[in-house]
Amino acid sequence: MAAPNPNHAQKNQCNFSKDFDYSQRAQWLRAAVLGANDGLVSIASLMMGIGAVKEDAEAMVLTGFAGLFAGACSMAIGEFVSMYSQLDIEIAQMKREKRMTNNGQNDEEIQKEKLPNPFQAALASALAFALGAIVPLLAAAFIANYKVRLGVVVAVVTLALIAFAGVGAVLGGTSVARSCPRVVLGGWMAMGITFGLTKLIGSNGLEM
């Protein structure tokens, strides 16, 4: 019996990678990556903003949890409404094509098509947002020193941004080297702007 040809196996693997349709992941991947990054950046920025005017950890953590609950609900509802609108449009288009071609496709066959799933997208967005949001919360919850707490939050959020960007790039078949710096820079800007503007407002006499 002839030994298996390693070049043949490698060729098949390459062909599989080329033939794999990454767009099949687009529906849940888009919602999950968007939710995780949004949860991470928005909650971290919110906590940094509170940290600009309040030094106690309790204020930062409570604000972060309030943002987590509000943001997860907002992401889920927004994604559900958006995907349902897309679903209605695609079903209407398929029905128009059915009437024009008269191919006898019934409603059951339409439902079997690869259509957007609003419930799946909403759940993915909410869970991903919560997953991202819990990172800065855990980083701040157990550190009493004010300056150390802020530094740890920034460091942990940076590492999480790199991880989320890398996973999203790998699953989506895009460049990790281009994705990670872009995501990290955006996160730094969001936290820095929120901290700076809140500090400015607080220093001008508006106190909590």
Automatic annotation (TrEMBL):
It catalyses: Fe(2+)(in) = Fe(2+)(out). InterPro entries: Ccc1_fam. One of its GO terms (molecular function) is iron ion sequestering activity. It comes from the Eukaryota. Signal peptide: none annotated. It is a multi-pass membrane protein. Its main location: membrane. Pfam families: VIT1 (PF01988). It is found in: Vacuole membrane. The chain crosses the membrane at residues 28-53, 59-81, 121-144, 150-171, 183-202. One of its GO terms (cellular component) is vacuolar membrane. Keywords: Ion transport, Iron, Iron transport, Membrane, Transmembrane, Transmembrane helix, Transport, Vacuole. GO terms for biological process: intracellular manganese ion homeostasis. Vacuolar Fe(2+) uptake transporter. Belongs to the CCC1 family. This is Vacuolar iron transporter. It comes from Olea europaea subsp. europaea. The lineage of its organism: Eukaryota, Viridiplantae, Streptophyta, Embryophyta, Tracheophyta.
